[in-house]
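Supplementary material to the annual report.
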Amino acid sequence: MNAIRKPQVRGNRIKELLMKVIFLSAALFSTAAVLIICLFLFARGIPAINEIGWLNFLTGTRWKPSDVPPSFGILPMIVGSVYATGLAIAMGAPVGILAAIFISKFSPPKIRRFINAAVGLMAGIPSVVYGYFGMVVIVPAIGRTFRVSGASLLAAGIMLAIMILPTIIQLSVSAIDAVPATYYEGALAVGATHEQSVFRVVVPAARSGVLSAIILGVGRAIGETMAVTMVIGNQAVMPESLIRGARTMTTNIITEMGYAVDLHYDALIATGVVLFVFILIINFSFSIIKNRGIKYDGS
Amino acid sequence: MTNNEITMEEILGHDVARDLTDDAVLDIAAPLSDKIAFEIRDLDLFYGDFQALKNVNMDIRQNAITTFIGPSGCGKSTLLRCLNRMNDLIESCRIEGSISLYGENIGGNNIDVNMLRKRVGMVFQKPNPFPMSVYDNVAYGPRTHGIRSRAKLDDLVESVLREAVLWDEVKDSLRKSALALSGGQQQRLCIARALAVRPDVLLLDEPTSALDPISTSKIEDLVMRLKSTYTIVMVTHNMQQAVRISDETAFFLLGEVIEMTDTKSLFAMPADRRTEAYITGRFG
Amino acid sequence: MTVADHKSSRRELALRKRHEWRTLLKHPASLIMRLSAYFAAILTVGVLLYLLVHNIFRGIPHLNADLFAWKYTSDNLSLVPALINTLIMTAFALILAVPIGVGAAIYLVEYSQQTSKIIRVIRLTTETLAGIPSIVYGLFGSLFFVRFLGWGLSLLAGTCTMAIVILPLVIRSTEEALIAVPDAWREASYALGAGKLRTVFKVVLPAAIPGILAGIILATGRIVGESAAVMYTAGSVPEIPGGQNFLHDPVRTLAVHMYVLSSEGLHPGSAYATGLVLMVMVLILNTLSRYFAKRLRVKAGQKDANE
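Predicted assembly:
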């Protein structure tokens, strides 16, 4: 009969402990990465904003890095980002949510599989491919319609609406799927049609999930760079009209990154910091809303 | 439709008849060993604030079949999982009191839990073969404990599959996935897998509750055969099963052991009113 | 089911459908709801199909031998160096990120007490990492790898940046794959006296492999398609790096190549063709990933939900 007292095999215990430490360090890697990213961005960006002046930087409407003296006001870009994102949500969210409702409640399994595959593919198509599509299809179309150059906020909005569709659809589908069948059956039982049950009972019950899908869509839209830079025109001016060119925070960085030096380079990093803060706020509200999600147990 | 009914009757008839087979009677009549495998003393177990076991005292005999019965949530599976310290895997679980196996306290910090589990094997409610071949399933335990020799493993696999009365059914498909076996075969494979590390004790947690009547009776036969070599502790929700195969039975209610004695007496003349109420089907 | 059964059930279905539509006509609000859902779905798929078809028709005529010449010149605009750079970067980034990501997921799923503070912090930061836009990664890579560590615009800087970009993706998909492995298998392994390591490496990981692969393939797609994060970390030199110091050579990946071609505006045909190659790669990766995700569900004994 074997004794059960330890330690029989000392090496085993050491190996177990060692591997645990290794796994833990791997897990801490992403935490370290976030910290280092914050550290490097803020350490370079904040002094730059201090030098430019917080008010000048955040509310200045002139971005003229090559003037003497240069001005670094990023308000036009903040407004540009907000407009482009707003347009994208205004167009993308309704379509995405309705499409999610279709996938979850109106589609036979075969079609559901097909659309799911299509949406997955949409999520995987690279930004540059979208951007090029926007550049050769959307921009000229807007140009012809309104007799302008075409590269505009509107083009960026349409571009982003298409690009955030997969995010909104995928998350909304899982939110709608998660609503218990009893909600739906309850509505049918009081005489509602299939559609009424879905739209008036099931979807409202899934609202926190759908809302978090939209918020994630906002995050995607505000952070998108390449596709936007190819269709928005990139004029660093306050947006005057939807069919005129504008510039977002992301495109401000990508257009000038290649040649910026000194304070100009730091001002781009600072633009990144502002963008990063936007993203952190969006992520934070996303996780709050996701975690606050309705628990379907009647409480 | 009529066909089905007849089959069900046959099965039921067979089931009932099994209580009276000579074999079973003989097995139960065989003299019980005096040796005690597990001694459980003043055992309390808590999940967080909830007390799942209250002041359990129990001796489990060597080479006997001991069954735990009682309504669901009464703590019978919880106690079973104390015997190989599977409760260690549950964060909120706290244990007071002592359990010893052949005089050695298994609860202490100086115990190698893996060695304990090698000596106290376990079979679960739902058959849970690994997604590997039949052979690799059986060889998993021995390999875990350092047996690498091909020949030794081959011998071991064959002998435990024979012990589990599965050899003839799987000898040509040892390399095939264990998940392709039927539910009953899977459960016998799980028993073989547990036997392959050569334990002293075999814990069975409602091993037949997910199986059909025919597979159930095969497992019951197997368990009775195994008791000459192993000490067996089994949780069951099926009182008939306890009557059919066990030597001793403990009745659990709300975390307490109401009574424990030899199976025949417990079912023939329960000492406690609650036991009587349960075995006559008034609750549970 | 017999053929006749099948036919009659089909007829029944058709009848029920007709009945359904008649009901809808009586409830105009319901009709609008349904039509709007149909419209949204058709619009979504329509946009994708238009994009695909447009790209295929414009791209195919320009898929010529020049495009696949071994060396890039301003005449042939060959995408081969960029393609090979992309593959090299993908391989290296995966080599960096997969062990870390899988290890992290193992810790999160198998080791941690789910309520502990450190787990909450790790989860929060992993989620944060997943939400950071490419351009911010690009800025960070430019600040940290290119300047602070002095690697310059290089394959190495681009690779390390991309490794961080895909890390949350690898962690999350591995986590999901590990969670899909039934606890019954873990219990069975522990009950045989196996320790945690053996249980994880011999039982849990093998069962989770298809799911982990699905995640790795998605991560590959992300690297292939990424441009904002690599342009100012890896650079834009359309040559295959060589020699001892090849890790420090600046390189151009395929997505960046396409951006350069399209922003120059001089070579629309080549841009289309490059885009087509990119899309075919993404399509293949997507299909593979879905296949492995399905394998995981089958392997973990779950019924094949309709995704």
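Residues 111 and 196 of chain C are 9 Å apart (CA to CA).
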